[in-house]
Amino acid sequence: MGGNTSKVTAQDKAILDMKIQRDKLHQYQRRITVLTNKETDIAKQMIAKGDKQRALLALRRKKYQESLLAKTDMQLEQLEKLTSNVEFALIQKDVVFGLQQGTNVLKEIHAEMGGIEHVEKLMGETADAIAYQKEVSEMLGGRISNQDEEEVEDELAALEAEMAGPQQLPTVPNDQLRERDPEAEPQPSRVRQPERQAMLA
């Protein structure tokens, strides 16, 4: 079965516990709201019966329930803030971990490259090599005549052709030629000039 075996951490359990507590407080608030509504109904009934003392008692119980409701609201607010802070701290932890991993990878890449000094040294060596090549070309260019330059270019072309390999020539038929029999071949008919002119006319 199990493809997803995600590990539940202590932080996950703590967040879950806080959310369970929050849900319990919400349930408690709903119960208190129902009770305060009942106490209001009881107070109305007692007033209707003319029992002022019992009406006052019901309203006092209602007031007490409302004070509990206010305290529950404060606890709920603190609990939700705490839950949000813990979740945000976990996100920050993941971000910091990601940044640390990225920094470590960058350090490894720089170590493989040999550091900035090594890169600068390579760039300097490359620039020196290009400058040397240019200097040699200019020096040789001034000492070689035009004829020598043409010979050098011809030699370069010959070397390129040699490196490319032998060129394929077209294949020649290997059949033996048949002997011709002059009598077997049809002879072109020769029309005399006057007859030809008469035909054309």
Word description of this protein:
The structure is a single chain. With 201 residues, this protein is an all-alpha fold. 79% of the residues lie in helices and 0% in strands. The chain contains 5 helices and no strands. Helix 1 packs antiparallel against helix 2 (52-113) and helix 2 (52-113) runs parallel beside helix 3. The model has no long low-confidence stretch (mean pLDDT 78).
What is the end-to-end distance? 105 Å
Portion in strands: under 5%
- Which descriptor suits the 3D outline? elongated
Helix content: over 70%
User: What characterizes the major β-sheet?
Assistant: none
- Estimated structural class: mainly alpha
What's the number of extended β-strand segments? 0
Which assembly state applies to the chains in this document? single chain
Order of helices and strands: HHHHH
Poorly predicted spans: none
Helical stretch tally: 5
Mean pLDDT figure: 78
| Rg over CA atoms | 53 Å
Protein name: Snf7 family
Subcellular location: Endosome membrane
Organism: Stachybotrys elegans
Family: Belongs to the SNF7 family.
